[in-house]
Hints:
Strand content: 5-15%
CATH architecture of the domain at 88-133 and 144-185: 2-Layer Sandwich
Number of helices: 6
Low-confidence stretches: none
CATH class of the domain at 88-133 and 144-185: Alpha Beta
Number of strands: 4
Amino acid sequence: MSRRHLSPEERALWHKLTRTVTPLRVPRARPSVDPAPAEAEASPAARAAERRVKGRVPPARLPVPVAPPRPEPAPVLDGSWEKRIRSGQLAPDHSIDLHGLNLAAAHLRLDRLLGEAVAQGWRVLLVVTGKPRALRPLPGETGKRGAIRAEIGDWLARSVHAGRIASVRTAHPRHGGDGALYIILRRATSL
C-alpha cells in the first residue's frame, strides 16, 4: 500500500494545526533526507507531531545512584605490629585449640579465654580453629569442616569483650597459618 502525499494546501493547514499542539515529550532529532520547503520552516513541535513511534516505548531510564566511596577503616595496629605478624615474630601470650569441639563448646571455651585474657592483661591470643577442607569430603567424613572458623567472627563481635578486641588476623604459618587466628587485645585503660 502506497502512502499518499499531502498537497501544498493540506501541508500548510497541517503545519498551522501542529503549531498549537504541545508535545508530551521532546523527541530526538532525526535527520531528514529531502525536506520540502514548508518542512524546513516547521518548528520542532511540528516535526515531532509528524513522527510516530511504533510498538511499546520503554520509559526513560533513571541514572543509577552511585554510592559514595566507603572510607578506609583506620588501621588499628601500627606498622611494628604488622611487621611482627608478617615475620612470625609475634609471640602469643596464650593459645587455645578448638579442634574436635562442637560449636556450643567451642563458643563457651572462647568466651572463657577472652574473660581470662582480659583479667590477666594478655595482649595476643592464638586460637587454633582448623582449616576447612577445600575439596569434597572424603568417604566417611560428614563434610562439616570449618564450622568453627565460619562462626568465630560473629562470636567475637557479639562477645562481652568485643570492645577490648583491637584486631583479628590470620596467624603466621609457623603458628598454624589459615587454620589459626591471632586475637590482639587493646591495653586496659586506667581511669
